[in-house]
Amino acid sequence: MIEPVSEDAVLITLAQAIDDTLPARIAGLTDSIRGAGFHWLVDIVPSYTTLMVVYDPLIIDFRRVVSGLRPLIELDRSCDRAPTLDGRLVELPVYYSTETGPDLQELASESGLDCEEVIRRHSSVEYRVHALGFAPGFAFMGQVDSSIAASRKTSPRKQVPAGSVGIANRQTAVYPQASPGGWQLIGRCPTPLFDPAKLSLLKVGDRVRFTPITREAFLAAGGELTP
C-alpha cells in the first residue's frame, strides 16, 4: 500500500506486523528505489514494516511518484523467494545488574524468572536491527524471547544514562546518549553507539548479539556507573 503522509512524502507499507524477513525486503526495495535514478528523490526512511519516500514537490506530484514506485513494489511482491540479508554481526558487551539495570529485578519477578535467567534469555538471542530513530544512533532491535517481553513504563524516566540496555514489548535497544526514556532497563553497554563524525555504529539489517560482562570489565571498557 502507498499513501501520502505529507506534501512531500509517501509511505509504503509492506506488512502489518514485525517480521524478521522484513529488513531484507525493506533493504532490497530501498536499493531498488535508489538505483532507479529518480531525479525527484530526496530521502528514504526505513522502519519496521514501512518505507517512507521523501520527494521534491516542486518537480513532481504524488500521483507521478506513485506511478514510478509501483512497478518496483510489484516486483518486490512477485519474488518467489524471501530475500535474505546477512548483515554485519555486531557484538555488544553488557554489564547486566540491578546497579545498571534498575528494572531487572522487577522484570524477572513479573516473568516468573530469576535475574540470571532473564540475562541468559536476553543474551542468547541474535537480534536484527529493524529501524533507527528516536535519537541519533538509537537502533530498534527484535525480537526478545516472549517470556521476558515487557511493556514500556507508565511514567518514563526524565533521564536514562547513556549505554542503558532496555526492553519495550518484544523490542530491545541501547540508549546511545543520556535522554528521557520509558523502556525497562536491565543493564548497560560501555560501547559508544553514536559518534557525530562516524554517525551510528549500527545500521538497519545488522545482527546484534549481547555478551554479558563483569562489573570490572565494564569499568575497564570505559563504562560509567552514573545513577
Automatic annotation (TrEMBL):
<dbReference type="InterPro" id="IPR003833">
    <property type="entry name" value="CT_C_D"/>
</dbReference>
<dbReference type="GO" id="GO:0017168">
    <property type="term" value="F:5-oxoprolinase (ATP-hydrolyzing) activity"/>
</dbReference>
<dbReference type="Pfam" id="PF02682">
    <property type="entry name" value="CT_C_D"/>
</dbReference>
<dbReference type="InterPro" id="IPR029000">
    <property type="entry name" value="Cyclophilin-like_dom_sf"/>
</dbReference>
<feature type="domain" description="Carboxyltransferase">
    <location>
        <begin position="2"/>
        <end position="202"/>
    </location>
</feature>
<keyword id="KW-0547">Nucleotide-binding</keyword>
<protein>
    <submittedName>
        <fullName>5-oxoprolinase subunit PxpB</fullName>
        <ecNumber>3.5.2.9</ecNumber>
    </submittedName>
</protein>
<keyword id="KW-0378">Hydrolase</keyword>
<keyword id="KW-0067">ATP-binding</keyword>
<dbReference type="InterPro" id="IPR010016">
    <property type="entry name" value="PxpB"/>
</dbReference>
